[in-house]
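Let us practice reading a record.
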Amino acid sequence: TTRGYVRHRLQHAGGSGEEFTDGAVDKIYAKSGGVPRLVNKLADFAMVYAVTSDKPIVDEEVIDEVLADDIFLEMRDPTAEAAE
């Protein structure tokens, strides 16, 4: 699962694995499709946003801020463009 993946990556980096709320991870999954490199990118952006806002954890609000700034490119279906 994406939740397990994020937790594992955080623990591997020296964290507790609890730095993201379940809601935040759910939003990361929804926007990344669970693709590991996209999960990593969105989680990285979110951690930077949280730190600069003095937030101890990444919650849904932080994910919404990253997405609102439009710096994360969502997964797109390449066949959809070809059909147009």
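A brief commentary: The mean pLDDT is 90.
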